[in-house]
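Two folds, back to back.
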Amino acid sequence: MPGLHHPPDARGYRDHRRRRRSGDSTPQIIRDFAARDARIRPILLPTNSIGGVATAANAGMEVATGDFIGFADGDDRYAPEMFEKLWRAAPNPMPTWR
């Protein structure tokens, strides 16, 4: 996550959830971000799974409380305002697909 051009908590959107499991210091980095920003709630899986990132994504979606879900992979780069721009561009009122 240190490789992110702008960490998700600096992107301007009001609510964030992070999920990731690895054998490095990533869990502590996530805990450190969460300690600085109450909107971040770490979801750390106890073991790696055969499902890989899909399992982590599903775990995050199971506890998501907002109307939108955005994924930020550690090897991707984002403009600081990307998620906020996507949120503002969403139709209002939102279509019902649930």
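---
second:
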Amino acid sequence: MDFGQALKELKRGKRLARKGWNGKGIFIKMQKPDKQSFMTHEYIYIDTTGLNSDNEAAPKDRVPWLASQTDMLADDWEVVGNRLTDLFQICSYSGNTAQSVASMNFFTSKVDLIASDRVAFEEEINRVASRLVAEGKLVLY
């Protein structure tokens, strides 16, 4: 998809990446400020916390993002899954019943946290996803 279509998807809350980007696990997303935010307007950030790279010094951060001219003219934008979806898929496809049950118990125990503190829940998901990526049990797009 082109950048105009990608912006529409960002506004719908989707995560996007370019096929031409180096490394898997990088995506951009639009952040809408909430009452805990220092920002007062929507902005786009890039998330490299799930980056799969042989370069140990590669940054693994979430920072505001600006599109380059190459990004704006590219036609290789795609919607990518989110970590929560990927982790639920692991529960279903791990092939290990005990591991699947343990994973589902983890999510079940976090239901109250999802309702009360979405930011804390997303941070917990990111910690778990990063650990699973490091262990080679999860590949993020």
